[in-house]
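User: Please run a holo structure prediction.
Assistant: Happy to. Please share the sequence and the ligand.
User: Here you go; the ligand is adenosine-5'-diphosphate.
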Amino acid sequence: MNPQDAWNTAYHQLEAQLGAAQFNTWLRDAALLDVDGDVWVIGVRSVFARDMLEQRLYRSVRRVVSDVYGSALELRFEVVKAAPRMEAAAVETPLFKLLAQQDPTEPSVPLHQRIARPERPELPETELNPRFTLDRFIAGSENEVALAAAHAIVEQPAAVYNPFFVYGSVGLGKTHLLQGIAHACRARGLHVVYIPSEVFVNELIQSIRERTTAMFRERYRGADILLVDDIQFIGGKDSTQEEFFHTFNALNTFNKQVVIASDRAPRELTTLEDRLRSRFEGGLIVDMHAPGFETRCAILRGWAADRGVELPNHICEQLAASATTNVRELEGMFNHIAATSRFLRKPITTSITDDALESYRQPRYHAVTLGRVLETVAAYFRLRVSDLTGKNRAGRINQARQIAMYLARELTMTSLPQIGDAFGGRKHSTVLHSCNKVSEEMEYDPALRAMVADLRRKLTDE
Ligand code: ADP
Ligand code: MG
């Protein structure tokens, strides 16, 4: 296999293995730039991504790439302003992403001169995972209501369950279900907009800055079906909820379907305005449950059939018994084992699975909380947490605060508005600005890079 093909294969395996959120944040735009002996040079979009890949994801990425290529490789990550994958897709790339690519040292050319705008505002090109179709979604007693509702919506959008609100913890198939509905509706010729709520927020902020809110509105309100994933990230006390509320009402008025996924029930979305919450509660709310043993076996068989992997029954059961909490974990194990057997050119046996399962038993870094970031950064700079959350903008305190926001963004699973809240009620645009500033300064300030790396180690090594 040549390096480019190997990279392409590894890229798709990493997508499955890391899960959509991690993959989209750190690797989606990565591209193989060069092969320098045993060192492969991978281009990424930001300093942010490079650091993350070098320091936290290096081993997983290297393992997958080496497995696919069939020999042990080293990787080097380099920041490129416009990764090749992005150039090809320049027109479909959301504006906020294009802006993030801009070189800050370049004179700023207005965006409209950089990208040829379509005559009519097109719906954003939403990226759907081709694997996330409804026919690949395995039905089990734990999710049958959600799946039945999904089918009913595809049959008759906006007729029965509108809005449809599905919630459950991470890795239970919410994104798969939403995208399954999106694929099926798109195949029926409907105008489908699937969007993670964070992207909605970012695009809104962007459109306000660019004075293109009219276009923004038209795009979302022109949908036949709007699917918003991870709505919990829309929280906060700003114009975003207002805008979303109006979008929601506009779609409702024209009898369009709205589907929402969340990690918790509407009543637990405490930062959500009451009027939005009661809108959600007016539709069908379905709670997704972790699949039981039988369903986990069926899901594994589905994957094996899909990818042409021979998976003996007793191994299927061994795996299903090992990953009990969520499907994403199960998928990680399955991919690992399938890749190992392919690499060794041996059928899947218990000796392969025992080894693989062992590596999953090792403690993984536990989720870093906002509180821990605040405490750790404050202690590091000999400040109090209240200095970081307070109003004082003196140089030293301000810099510590910006670094803390950067680390919060990178290491915690929270949204910009949530970080803003934790830092004394700051706006998400302030948080974004701080993160970008730290990330830019690290480019030419090795001392800052070392400091951030040091803090990152303190936060994640335990
Ligand atoms: P969530 O959005 O709830 O965090 P995802 O939709 O990303 O979870 O699902 C995680 C992984 O598990 C995906 O690869 C998805 O295809 C798979 N998965 C979850 N539930 C099922 C199911 N019932 N059938 C098939 N695959 C599933
Ligand atoms: Mg999801």
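The pocket of adenosine-5'-diphosphate (ligand 1) is lined by residues 20, 132, 136-138, 143, 170-176, 299, 302, 327-328, 331 (CB under 6 Å).
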